[in-house]
Specification:
This protein is of the alpha+beta class and 300 residues long. Helix content is 57%, strand content 9%. A hairpin with a 6-residue loop joins strand 3 and strand 4. Helix 1 packs antiparallel against helix 3 and helix 7 runs antiparallel to helix 8. The longest helix has 36 residues. It is flat, with a radius of gyration of 29 Å.
């Protein structure tokens, strides 16, 4: 869930005389930037691919291949150039407010960092406690401040915090999104560090790749070895199948189907472990609550 953060007068140095209406063109351009960024990345990749193919196939030889390789090395530079072109609308709209280049850059940095150029930041404490997964004891309430530019942006930050903790399960630490935080997660009774994130499905993906890739690579190697003979009818298709089966049996110790059955069992076991551990992790989530400006306690 991406939360769009608008540029507000408080981000702009000496922006006392600027109101939100004046910033509408800038914020419209900021909203378009993610899509423009994706398009610029794809254009940069396509341009790099076309140029590298031209030099590799058109020029050819050692020189052509070296130039093609060098072009791919410069791909990040091409990407940054196209991204700068895509963000030119933001620069034009913010400069139209009569700001200097330095003030414009500072305003955009303040927006990214959720920092005020003038005035006081708004603070709201978030309280939390957790039950240790090892000793099962419950901690006292900890607190940490959620800080933002205005009450409005603070509510957006709180929404992001709720999303990170309730949906993404980033209970104790989060380095992405708007609400970046690092909370105490060491049990004061047994010094056990609680896991910051739930088990990830990446282990199942890795197991699936282990099951699929070795037979596939082996098949490609065997096919490449006998491709010319098959094409010229030196080896019959039936004999090629026999050779393939023999190779599979020697490689995997019992045949390709036995390998897939074994790996299917491994994947099923990993899935069960993943589901059980994730459920256990979620059931032991920390408790959160916060107090609004009227000191009304609200559970997150």
């Amino acid at each position: 869930m991406a939360i769009f953060r608008e540029l507000i007068p408080e981000h702009i140095p000496n922006g006392y005389n600027i109101n939100k209406t004046m910033l509408v063109p800038v914020n419209n351009e900021l909203k378009k930037l993610p899509k423009k960024g994706i398009v610029s990345y794809l254009v940069a990749m396509a341009a790099t691919a076309v140029l590298s193919i031209f030099f590799s196939k058109g020029v050819g030889g050692f020189a052509g291949n070296m130039i093609a390789t060098f072009i791919w090395i410069l791909f990040p530079l091409f990407g940054s150039v196209f991204l700068k072109i895509a963000s030119s609308g933001i620069n034009k709209s913010i400069l139209s407010l009569g700001l200097s280049n330095e003030a414009s850059l500072t305003a955009l940095k303040n927006r990214s960092a959720d920092k005020r150029a003038w005035g006081e930041m708004v603070k709201m404490p978030i309280y939390y406690r957790f039950t240790c997964k090892k000793c099962k004891k419950q901690t006292d309430w900890y607190s940490f401040p959620l800080i933002s530019c205005t009450n409005e942006t603070l509510q957006g930050k709180l929404t992001d915090f709720q999303y990170r903790t309730n949906v993404k399960r980033k209970y104790y630490e989060n380095k992405r999104g708007w609400a970046k935080y690092s909370l105490e997660h060491t049990c004061p009774f047994c010094n056990k560090k609680q896991k910051k994130n739930p088990p990830k499905i990446i282990l199942i993906v890795i197991a699936a790749l282990i099951a699929v890739l070795p037979p596939l690579i082996n098949y490609i190697v065997i096919l490449g070895e006998y491709h010319k003979d098959l094409k010229n009818n030196v080896v019959s298709a039936e004999r090629a199948r026999e050779i393939y089966k023999e190779s599979m049996s020697q490689t995997f110790g019992g045949g390709i189907w036995e390998w897939f059955v074994f790996m299917a069992i491994v994947i099923v076991v990993l899935i069960v472990i993943y589901i059980v551990k994730r459920k256990k992790y979620i059931n032991l989530k920390p408790e959160y609550y916060y107090c609004d400006n009227n000191q009304n306690q609200q559970i997150i």
